[in-house]
UniProtKB/TrEMBL annotation:
It comes from Mycena rosella (Pink bonnet). This is F-box domain-containing protein. The lineage of its organism: Eukaryota, Fungi, Dikarya, Basidiomycota, Agaricomycotina. SUPFAM superfamilies: RNI-like. It comes from the Eukaryota.
Amino acid sequence: MNLSRLRIIRISGGEDGATDEATLGLIPDIVSESVRHVHLSDFHSLSYTTLTRILEKPCALEGLHFHECTASESEPSDLFPLPISPKHHLTHLSLSSSASIAQWLVRPGFPLDFSNLICAEISRSSNGTVATILEGVRGTLKSLTVAGEDFDPTIVTFKYWSPFRLDDFRPIQLLRFPALTHLGIALDLPFDIVATLPAISEITNRNTIQEIIYTIQIPHLLDGEPQAAAEQSSTWPTFDAGIAALPLPHLERVEIMFLENPDDYLDPDQPGAARAAPQHLDAASFPLLSERKLLFLTTQYYQ
């Protein structure tokens, strides 16, 4: 198999994250010199050996991306020698619900250089180690994506979705990233959006942010419940006023993207029958942002 032009590798451990070690061991074998980005998702016991074997390959990685990965506790990294390959100068790093992986990435002598990092996704992974990585590039980082609870652990409706150990939590402080042009914030429910305003209000006119993109994973979970409807009706004007008041002279776009699964619209009581899709917001809910032509409401479907 000729993989000389392969640039991106995406491998998932599956829904249960229980991919066996033999399968994991095959990952380094397909990392050719042309590979620039490696995406690993849903590995609930990721081997340190597997990661170091990837980094030993003679390629110039630009991005490492972890989604819902957990470091193997049965394999302490300090028992293994560090890779001897030249350093990979990363421009992109993703640690989405993968806080425990960060401890490996900053080991002394580990072959990763973050000085060129321009894009970081740190969703539900803001711990002390991640803070160390970000601190080193805070003056040059251009794009940052976080979850609401990376500002404050209480910004999460589903309390059982614990993002990280609270004893190692380090809040993301936006004022420390003056070079940001893109800010992404992931939320689970619409009315959590107002709870992000205190963190965003730290932004000053020295920031160069051009776009703020919110993604809401479960926008209509509580549709039809009066309390939820009332809460949402007050949410949007409050959010509109709060964002419009930000001193951001370079701001060009405020987007709220709803991530929807079409299967959610099937009526469980009537197999095969679709229930009415929920009503979407319109610009009238955001008069201030709409007047300045900053508002974009979008939907992205997934399954």
